[in-house]
Amino acid sequence: MSAEQPAVTRKGRLSAALGDDLSFLLARANAYSLAAGNVALATIGLRARSYSVLALAADGSRPSQRDLADFLRLDPSQVVALVDDLQTRGLVAREADPADRRTNVVVTTAAGRALYEQARVQARRAEEQVFARLSPSERERLASLLQLVAFPD
Amino acid sequence: MSAEQPAVTRKGRLSAALGDDLSFLLARANAYSLAAGNVALATIGLRARSYSVLALAADGSRPSQRDLADFLRLDPSQVVALVDDLQTRGLVAREADPADRRTNVVVTTAAGRALYEQARVQARRAEEQVFARLSPSERERLASLLQLVAFPD
DNA sequence: TATTGTTATACTCTATAACTATA
DNA sequence: TATAGTTATAGAGTATAACAATA
What we know:
By secondary structure, chain A is mostly helical.
């Protein structure tokens, strides 16, 4: 709190105005995380966005495009583009929902599931790198704090 | 940890694949935070980006554009555009650094400092809204965990 | 009437490369 | 040679609006 405390150590002299600003820290941490994720996933032709869609399709919960948009906090029109791309590459397919013919359910193909397994390895590698300075229990703590912000209900 | 724990409560049935993924939680939390910040700051003609530049210029540390780029994790060319915009509006000025004539130091004008005071109020309002579910001590804990990620040194 | 998916469009953000002037 | 700032450009992400099919 006082003038010459080690807040400077890690962040340099500019930290006075924004160094404790949660929104700024969130933005900067996310920038690192997103960049590392995109680099790691680029090796198998995915990006963070397409990986997240593939992950949700791959877990067997048969999400509609609307479900994906809500959960990923994307506009439905962005989901159209992401699913188009994955479908063109033979990784996912749209299935009609018999209960509601407006709805497209997104499922993975065998190739999609196989690629997802590779992608998970890369995603973990990136995460390990970005969160290297946090212990397992600190990571759990961070996850539960972030869940309160990310899913306000 | 076991199968039917309340991880579903706040995030719905899609949470299996990504609900504990730190990178995803960071992205989603940041999306909320950024959106709320932009909405709150729009009332006074700023965005999160321009606010962060103004904040660093306003605290008297006389940052160079390079300092701003490093701290905000922006490309130097983006800083040019942000400073151009704020300068056009009479909120900041570029000053030559006598010690190194390549360097532009960014300082606030009186109007810039006045607007920054208003902007801080809006930024706090947005932050209060986004982090409403976290107690003061949880917010501090979140800040220090995020600092380890955002400033890896 | 409301919702799902779709198309279109404009704007912001991100990432590179090349250039200039200084060091 | 290297660094600070600048310009230019392309690609990714964000935000809206409007529409068809279906509920």
